[in-house]
Amino acid sequence: MSTKKRFAILIPAALFLLIVVSYWFHLWLPKEKRTTHLILGTSASISAGLLSIAENQGYFREEEIRAEIRRYSSAGVAFKEMLDRKIDMAGVSETPLVYKAFSRENFRIVAVGSTTSSDPKIVVRRSSNVFFPKDLSGKRIGTTRAGQSAHFFLSLFLLKHTIPEEEVTILHDSPAAIVDRLVSGDLDAASLFEPFAFEAAKRLGEGGLLFEEAGLYHKTFCLTARPEWIERNREPLKSFLRALIRAESFCQNHPDAAMKIIAEDISADPEVVQNFIRKASFGVNLHGSLIETLRDQARWALRQKLVRDEKIPLFHRLIDPTLLREIDPGRVGIGL
Fold first, then answer.
1. Residue range 78-107: average pLDDT?
2. SS3 sequence of 243-309
3. Check: CATH 1.10.3720.10 for 31-116+219-331?
4. Among residues of the chain, what percentage have pLDDT more than 90?
5. 274-283 pLDDT, tens digit each
6. Distance (Å, rounded) from C-alpha 277 to C-alpha 79?
7. Which of 182, 204, 257, 313 has the fewest beta carbons closer than 10 A?
8. CATH number for region 121-211
């Protein structure tokens, strides 16, 4: 056989062997070297508790996901970072999503991580002569950025107690800044989510008062991402959701341990975390009530003139149930 013919046989055989060896080498790589890096932004909110648990218990690592959780001053800021392609996902309440849905549709809700009917709350200064909800008339009330959950709750609270919004001065700032301004006396009251409401009440001590309205607003913690990112990362994203489902089970079976993990992760008082967990529902799902919640808040945004559009967005187009349905169809109650 000539040298040329030998090379004609050996070269393809060598290439085939190289491909086989590379494939088996990939399979036997240590798991941490094959882990997908995912960056999710959110706030220091108890609503995001499943993220804290999954990270603490190593569920992300076991599902071959290197999840980097970044904490922002507000979840709305994290949501914007996600839309601007600076991070991969954002964990945020539904209110900023509604506000943004009027102007753009380049995001999808892939799952809900928790719901609660006892957050946010109103914290007031007694020295401002506020002892009952009706006393808020004429006062300076601080809350988060326009269009966010604490702002929405404040509107519902004022409406329930027949206080026209024109009779109060609403000032927007970051949650931490709102707490400082309330304590210093620059504000008479504040609408805040936990753990900031508890922190404000604790710092005010006997000089403060807390107004709760359980059931007035059902706050939902949504996991969001850009549609093109979802399509490129379907399998890693399913692994991420499976890790959260394991965290959900841990929270149900070990509530005290879950409380300690969340409190330590977001530097919150264990007492407020424990109280929140008792009243909240940590669960990875997509229930049918989500769309109606989004529509209710869209109507509010129109009344508040936070948006220019006059039509309510088609929210069903902003929900992607396919990943969660592939993991566990029973967790999806939305017929999309």
1. 91
2. HHHHHHHHHHHCHHHHHHHHHHHHCCCHHHHHHHHHHEEEEEEECCHHHHHHHHHHHHHHHCCCCCC
3. no
4. 61
5. 888 887 889 9
6. 24
7. 257
8. 3.40.190.10
